[in-house]
Amino acid sequence: MSLLSKTVLRSLANTAQALTSRIYISSSGEGAAQKYLLLLFLMNHYVPVRCQDCTPIMANLDKFIKFDNMGTTYYTSKAHYSDAVQSAAMCKSICGHLSEIEDKKEEELVHALLKRLNYGGVLIEGTNKYDKSKWESERTLKKINYVNWCRGEPNNHLKNENCLTYMKNWACMWDIPCVYDYRAFDIHYLCEVKNT
Ligand SMILES: [Ca+2]
Ligand SMILES: [Ca+2]
């Protein structure tokens, strides 16, 4: 749903609330009852739009570097990656999720972003911890259709490499542990938020 239509619906719901209180004061009888029922319908139908909204934790937004691109905002963590569950929770706290690189074009965008920030890499969405034979999104539990493994990857080198990272210098993906101190490789984590 577009931002405009959400705004319009919120405005309608607010108007309905305001009108309802006036009708109680100024009207009576069947006509007023019909109007009231109509307004109740509008309110019940549109007010839940508000409940679907997400309010980012403002203090957490400061922990990222923001980049807008074509309806999606990417947030690269200033802190190093150390724990995939914590990283995903941080993304959620700003109303997003770990970035899902869905095609070559998006991969190139992420690579350019890493070059600009001069970061070594970023944790992105993807795990094989549920089924070693496939990589899937932790968020949707669907198979990841796009991967660009670096040469020799995925190699499960440390025997628990069940998470996914995109590396700047090689311009491709590694499997890495879901909990690890990756400061030596300068790995951060990347969230994305779809702008509605
Ligand atoms: Ca994406
Ligand atoms: Ca690996």
Automatic annotation (TrEMBL):
<protein>
    <recommendedName>
        <fullName>C-type lectin domain-containing protein</fullName>
    </recommendedName>
</protein>
<dbReference type="InterPro" id="IPR016187">
    <property type="entry name" value="CTDL_fold"/>
</dbReference>
<dbReference type="InterPro" id="IPR001304">
    <property type="entry name" value="C-type_lectin-like"/>
</dbReference>
<dbReference type="InterPro" id="IPR016186">
    <property type="entry name" value="C-type_lectin-like/link_sf"/>
</dbReference>
<dbReference type="Pfam" id="PF00059">
    <property type="entry name" value="Lectin_C"/>
</dbReference>
<feature type="domain" description="C-type lectin">
    <location>
        <begin position="69"/>
        <end position="175"/>
    </location>
</feature>
